[in-house]
Structure formats: C-alpha cells, structure tokens
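Escalated from tier 1: D-MYO-inositol-1-phosphate holo job.
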Amino acid sequence: MCDSHALLALAVSLARQAEEIISCASERTVIATKSSTTDAVTATDVAVESFIRDELGKLRPADGVLGEEHGLQAGTSGVTWVVDPIDGTVNFLYGLGEYAVSIAAVTGPPNPAQWQVQAGAVLSLPSQRMWTAARGQGAWRDGVQLSVPPPKPLAESLVGTGFGYQVARRTLQGKVLAGVLPACRDIRRLGVASVDMCLVAEGGLDLFYERGLNHWDMAAASIIAQEAGAKVVGLHNEPAGNTMTVVGHGQALSELVALLEAQGADDIEI
Ligand code: IPD
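Tier 2 regenerated the structure:
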C-alpha cells in the first residue's frame, strides 16, 4: 500500500528517534572503512541504521530496506525504505558543520533504477533543520513550504558539489571542478549531499552536482528538491544517479549540464 502521507509521517518519526541516538553518542570513532581508508563507518552509523531497520521490521514487516551500512533487504509490499543513517559521516567524525539522517520511501520493482520516491525526510544536525516532501504534496522545511527562487545564469550561481572517497575518482572530480569554478559565482563543499540538495530546494544553493552518489545519499533529497520545483537530472538526458546527479533549474541548470557534458564529467568509468 502506498499512502505517501503516512510514509512521510513514519520517515519523520524515525529521523527524530535517530536524532536521539546520535545526540547521545559519546564517542565518535571509526570502527570500519568501506571504499577507501577515508570512507569511514562509526559505531553511530551502525547503531542508527540498526535501530531504523528494527523499527521498520516491527511496523512494516513486508517492506524492503536499503541502507548504507547493511545493504538491501528485499520486501514483498512494493515499498522500500532507503536510509542513510548519517550522511556526512566525516563531518560527524570531526564535529564539523552539519550531518544528516536521510530516510525515503520508494515504490517500484526490485530494480532501484525503476524506483519512484514517494516521501522523504532529511534531518540536519546539530541545527535540527528538517526538510520533508511527499509526492504531489510540496516540499517543506520546518513547516514552511519551499519553492525554488527565480532562475539565474550559471555565472551568478552558487554551486555545491562533493567528492567520492577513491583517489582515481577524486582526480577526475578535481579536473571537472577546475572547469566549473571560473564559470560560476563560487563553489561550496558542505560534505552532506542530502543537505546540499535540500538547500537547492530553498535557494541556499543555486545548483548542486556530484558524481558517485548512492541511492541513500539522494533518494529523500531528490523528492524534496523536485517538489520545490527543482530538477534532478543526469547528463546526456540520462536520469540522475551514480554516474552524475545535477540539481537546479532554469538557465543555470542547462548551462551546468552542458559544461559538465563538455568536460566529460561522466566519461570514464571510475
Ligand atoms: C557522503 C556525503 C558527501 C558526498 C559523498 C557521500 P556519507 O555521504 O554526502 O557530501 O560528497 O559522496 O558519500 O559517506 O557521509 O554517508
């Protein structure tokens, strides 16, 4: 069953409960690494995801769950929860800036490429900013409905981006960044892709792009950005995804997509 309003209410509730676990975390130490030695997992990442999986198992046992730390557990209901227990783990580790709990409910076949996001919540900490959206019901931040500001050219746009954890990917991302930097107002690297995308929804950034995002980084934020009027796209008319995700609207989005395509930002399979 897909009641996007009910799915959103549960996503919000789970994010708030996750906040309690995160705020009680006394130690911020790395217990494992993933794609490289800098791709850290903390005990809190694992504890938050385990908590969310347990709650979903009790409340919606037929649903699937895809989480950053424990992978995909397929369900039978047609609904899958996509969870990043702490997006911005490096910020969390260093006690720097923001990090976020990101929870989305998607529907569709087992193939994630065909998923449609129905509802999403991104709770940014420690500021406690909560962005939410349900399909067809608008995007909101703490009770205020969001709408992207009027379009502007790339040259006047503040552009968020992020980098992967592997050296080869970063090398390519650095080259692409060198092409984007002179073409825009300035660049920001917050370290939390979900929050970057939510900021585009409210005009805190004009654009965001990143290669290498996973479903858990972007599922919830993608519906928030879209419901606020932004587009979430890939290059060469492909959908947004691991190869490239670009968020924005109007002239600036078209210019950034053209620039990234011209630079071959998605050419090499890294
Ligand atoms: C990371 C953050 C970062 C982005 C990386 C992501 P994580 O998520 O969103 O901003 O640049 O690509 O992997 O690893 O902290 O959940």
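The longest strand covers residues 116-125.
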